[in-house]
Amino acid sequence: MSATKSSSPLPWLLLLLSVTTGLVDAISVLGLGKVFTANMTGNIVFLGFAAAGTPGFRVAPFLAAIAAFLVGALIAGRIGKHHAGLPLGRWLILAALVEAALLWIAAGVSIGFDIPSQSPSASVFAIIALTGVAMGFRNATIRQLKVPDLTTTVLTLTLTGLAADSHFAGGSNPNWPRRIASVAAIFLGAALGAWLVNRHGLTVPLILAGALVLAGTAACALHPTAREPLGG
């Protein structure tokens, strides 16, 4: 399928998923002790801090997040290859079900979790693992869709393109609305996630993130273009 067709609902779905990325990052950074489960660049940097013995940074959570993310991406990569040639909607719904289920299980684990004391400690690693696998699965799925400027989790290249391709740099400023919308979506998700974490803990934003993923994907899967085959 041509994911860049103007009639495709994929860009709208990916913007919604970008909002959930902000939610998940707020949950993990604010609730689980400075660890990212959606953005692995941050974990590599923090892992370097921890390796140097910087106070407040522990090696184990970052390794757990990276390992979980890789497991999720590996599983999604294998499943995605088996769906090559099959309707895109089928793959999208399966991916959404997996991600939502993992986020909702994490929500169940988070019930009774105390953020200030980070206890029970087993819950920290369980939530990191569950959300990390979910985000790894998400990233591998989005990678196969090949929609420009909408990775749903990282903004470095998006911001680079926004500046480097702008009229000020002598460019034609392609896809600037989409690029700005991507930045705004993650910002919105992070702000909403921070508000929810600070007032309601981790359970509510985890439930909301899973619901948004599933509802948005279901709406996208009903579109006629979702009947077209997923590219290999």
Automatic annotation (TrEMBL):
Entry keyword annotation includes Amino-acid biosynthesis: no
Full protein name: Uncharacterized membrane protein YoaK (UPF0700 family)
Organism of origin: Sphingomonas kyeonggiensis
Keyword Membrane: yes
Protein keywords: Membrane, Transmembrane, Transmembrane helix
Membrane-crossing segments per the record: 59-79, 91-113, 119-137, 180-197, 203-222
Organism domain of life: Bacteria
Pfam family, one: DUF1275
